Amino acid sequence: MVERHLRRRGIADERVLAAMAAVPRERFCPGAGLRRAYSDRALRIEEGQTISQPWVVAAMTAALGLSGRERVLEVGTGSGYGAAVLSRCCREVVTLERHALLAQRAERLLGELGYDNVEVRTADGTNGAPDRAPFGGISVTAAAEGAPPAALVDQLAEGAALVCPVRRNGDERLILLRDGLEEALVPVRFVPLVEG
Ligand code: SAH
Asked: How much is the pLDDT for 43?
């Protein structure tokens, strides 16, 4: 997966590639089988949600430009896969999920796999986690309408990046925000970020 789907398709950050090689993706999508788990596809998880395709997880993590010392916020825990990848590229992850059942499952699995630098919270991620801010990176894994939630932008440390899928006029793209500057990355398809 790392060579074929990631390195060859432009993911160059060695720490991200090492994290992608280390995290056992099949544990986060039980029932998919090994072949599908390591194919470059999004897969269904419970509650009608999905686990993003490996390339997108790697590209979002790489876009944050992490040094390894940051506290990172993830919005949309889902299966916990993205949080596991992030946790290997920074010091600490706070991840927020609005579905209590998904949050509980992800927390249990991350604990079983020994990812002890991840805090999972059942919460509306559009408010972020003000008690743990500022963050050295923020990754939103559900699509915002128009713009990333303002509360999240406020919780960025100086010079830190936020990556978020944003839908505008039916077009959905990964947006990278750093120092108030916005850069549009690749077209993507995520489940909607539920407001409130
Ligand atoms: N990162 C996940 C994939 C996330 S799918 C993984 O690696 O498996 C998007 C997730 O965002 C879903 O689980 C959905 O329930 C969650 N979500 C949507 N709106 C949210 C909100 N406002 N706050 C927190 N979680 C939200």
From this structure: 95
- What separation in Å is there between the alpha carbon of 23 and the centre of ligand 1? 19
Q: Report the pLDDT value the prediction gives residue 56, as an integer from 0 to 100.
A: 97
Cα 182 to ligand 1 centre (Å): 22
Question: Among all chains, which residue has been given the structure tokens 């896969």?
Answer: 81
Structural domain boundaries of the chain?
2-187
Distance from the CA of 76 to the center of ligand 1, in angstroms?
3
The residue contributing the CA closest to ligand 1 atom 4 is 78
Q: Would you state the torsion angle of the CA atoms of residues 166, 64, 58, 116, taken in this order, to the nearest 10 degrees?
A: -110
Q: Is 87 in the pocket of ligand 1 (CB under 6 A)?
A: no
Q: Check pocket membership of 194 for ligand 1, CB cut-off 6 A.
A: yes
Output the pLDDT for position 196.
Answer: 73
Give the architecture (CATH level 2) of 2-187. 3-Layer(aba) Sandwich (3.40)
Asked if residues 66 and 44 have their Cβ atoms less than 8 Å apart, the reply is no
Query: What pLDDT is stored for residue 164 in this prediction?
Result: 98
pTM value is 0.97
Angle, helices 14-22/54-63, rounded to nearest 10 degrees: 140
The string of pLDDT tens digits covering residues 48-95 is: 889 999 999 999 999 999 999 999 999 999 999 999 999 999 999 999
